[in-house]
Amino acid sequence: MTESASTTGQAVEPAEWIDLPDIAERLEIPVTRVHQLIRDRNLLAVRRDGILRVPVELIATPSVRKHLPGVLTLLHDAGYNDEEALRWLYTADDSLPGTPAEGLSGSRATEVKRRAQALGF
């Protein structure tokens, strides 16, 4: 997958990861529901050190980040797999500023969604 022309930074790993049982505890849901969130592309999980993990900042108690499911759907529709979606979410973009993952939690969420949507064209 090629990166957007406006991408100006390097992809960085999330600062902190959380595993699925800890997500279930934090969100007060069964771990099977966490698996369902991942299957439904409402939450992004990738293997790190052989364990399925989620970047902590994608979780917003009591749920996942509000705009994350829509962005993940747009990235999937554009042909991104989970690792590529993670890379896109964590690649700094000076015009945003910051990373799309950071933008999901603030007033830039609409712009992040717009950019994810543009990847499909």
Protein architecture, described:
The chain has 121 residues and is of the alpha+beta class. Helix content is 40%, strand content 12%. It is globular, with a radius of gyration of 14 Å. This is DNA-binding protein. Residues 15-58 form the DNA-binding protein Rv2175c wHTH domain. Pfam families: Rv2175c_C, Rv2175c_wHTH. Keywords: DNA-binding.
- Number of structural units classed as domains: 1
Q: Roughly how much helix do the residues carry, as a percent range?
A: 40-55%
Major beta sheet summary: 3 strands, antiparallel
Q: Which regions have little confidence, pLDDT < 50, spanning 5+ residues?
A: 1-7
For this entry, what is the oligomeric state of its chains?
Answer: single chain
- Averaged pLDDT, please? 87
Q: Look at the helices and sheets and give the structural class.
A: alpha+beta
Protein name: DNA-binding protein
Keywords: DNA-binding
Pfam families: Rv2175c_C, Rv2175c_wHTH
GO molecular function, one term: DNA binding
Give a quick set of tags describing it:
40% helix; DNA-binding; globular; 3-stranded antiparallel beta sheet; 121 residues; single chain; Rv2175c_C; DNA-binding protein; DNA binding; 5 strands; alpha+beta
